[in-house]
Specification:
The protein is α+β, with helices and mostly antiparallel strands and 234 residues long. 33% of the residues lie in helices and 16% in strands. The strands form 2 sheets. The protein has a 6-stranded mixed sheet with strand order 7-6-1-3-2-8, covered by helices on one side. Strands 4-5 form a two-stranded antiparallel ribbon. The longest helix has 17 residues. It is globular. It starts with a helix and ends in a 16-residue tail after the last helix. About 10% of the residues have low confidence.
């Protein structure tokens, strides 16, 4: 399977023609943003920082979206669902490790709730109706998955999926899995802050920058211009 890094290099020559076209038409590909209702049931806010671990295709875009969310103090790309020994990009890319490319989102529940994190995740960060793929990427490593950190998160996520399906918020059923009891492993350094560091990279321009734009458009009260970066700064 051709990795995104190699694919990006291979398509650099096409960038001028592809991205000179109307970006508004081709912005998301299959991952169109959706305006969806907030969860009817939310998690009770804790007194300190909380963590959500989410998988929704390439972690570059998911990380990039949540780095622009107010109340998020950290968004780290990594792997979840498999073993420590296989938590590496080249191994995970084979699609047989059990891992999904994931993002560990640390947030202040006094500023943004777990439910709001999920609403942004389902609405703009990815397409939850695509099974084992997102946009140009296919395989179980690109599945839509929530890795709850406790029973309450699992309950809120399950109830929200049921709510959205009942409301026919999407044209197809949500395929997001809820996978408790897994361990998150941080990805290699070159994957961290990839969107922020490579805003002209063809894959980012076509697949991910429109998601950040959709966050700003659909959630203006939760959007911040300057992302919180793993490498420091804000």
């Amino acid at each position: 399977m051709l990795s995104r890094l190699k694919l990006g290099v291979a398509t650099l020559g096409l960038a001028g023609g592809l991205f000179g076209a109307n970006l508004a038409v081709s912005a998301f590909g299959a991952d169109q943003p959706h305006k969806i209702p907030a969860p009817a049931t939310d998690a009770r806010p804790a007194s300190g920082p909380e963590v959500a671990v989410l998988a929704g295709g390439c972690f570059w875009g998911v990380q990039g979206v949540f780095q622009h969310v107010k109340g998020v103090t950290s968004a780290v790309s990594g792997y979840d669902g498999g073993e420590k020994a296989t938590a590496h990009y080249e191994m995970t890319s084979e699609g047989n490790t059990g891992h999904a490319e994931s993002v560990r989102v640390t947030f202040d529940p006094a500023k943004v709730s777990y439910g709001k994190i999920l609403q942004i995740y389902f609405s703009v960060a990815h397409d939850p109706t695509e099974l084992n793929r997102q946009g140009p990427d296919s395989g179980t490593q690109y599945r839509s998955a929530i890795f709850p950190q406790n029973a309450e998160q699992a309950q809120v996520a399950k109830a929200y999926i049921a709510q959205l399906d009942a409301a026919h918020a999407f044209s197809s059923p949500i395929v997001t899995t809820i996978e408790p009891g897994k361990t998150f492993y941080r990805a290699e350094g070159y994957h961290q802050d990839f969107l922020a560091k490579n805003p002209t990279y063809p894959y980012i321009v076509y697949n991910d920058l429109p998601k950040v734009a959709a966050l700003k458009a659909l959630f203006p009260d939760y959007y911040r211009d300057n992302p919180v970066l793993v490498g420091g700064g804000s």
